[in-house]
Amino acid sequence: MDGKFIVMEGPDGSGTSKHSSLLANRLILNGYDVILTAEPTDGSIGATIRTLLKGEKTLSPETLQLLFCADRAEHVNKIIQPALNSGKIVISDRYSLSTIVYGSALGIDEKWLSSVNNYFIKPDLTFITLPPFEVGMERIHRRPENDHFENVPFQKIVYEEYAKHSSEKSIIVDTSGGKEDVAKEVTNHVLKSFPDLYLPKDLKDY
After folding, report:
1. Domain assignment of residue 52, given as a range
2. Does residue 202 belong to any structural domain of this protein?
3. How many domains does one find in the chain?
4. 144 pLDDT exceeds 90?
5. CA 35 – CA 37 distance, rounded (Å)
6. Who's near 144: CB < 8 A, 6+ residues apart?
7. Is 121 in contact with 3 (CB distance < 8 Å)?
8. Whose CA is closest to 46, among 10, 20, 74?
9. Among 27, 86, 124, 190, which residue has the fewest nearby CB atoms (within 10 Å)?
10. Is residue 206 a part of any domain in this protein?
């Protein structure tokens, strides 16, 4: 089987991590070799990004997004591409669309952001998790702490930017329903996109 690259994207609080994990677990349950990964990564650049987002010091928007791209370059070279070359399924919680959307929301030229990210391998399928805006913000407010991006005015811009990116390979999914129903919808889209996959076993049955 050829390697497959699936990405979960969406605003903060939209469920990208949860549904990346649910999809990965279902694929693993059905015998597939899956790499579940995320951005920012656990590498040194990713750790620097997380520290900056939580701290008081901020970088210029361009510098911050270039840091995300540097982290992505390491991610692709060390994790994503080798896994795809060996026929594995890679599921990433966030990827290049996050840089384009969040960077645009920060006022950076979208064409420039896209050109920088054109050098990276493209996902075979992207899910944009997009519950009603109020649902995502309620989830954010339940967190013990928030980063610089997790505020209502900025998240509204991010939400509207993500809504513009629906396409045949970037599928919007409303994640406000029950997790099993949403996971089933995600799975159905995966099966339509990759006819060679077979997923008879369902996580809820185990």
Report:
1. 4-197
2. no
3. 1
4. no
5. 6
6. none
7. no
8. 74
9. 86
10. no
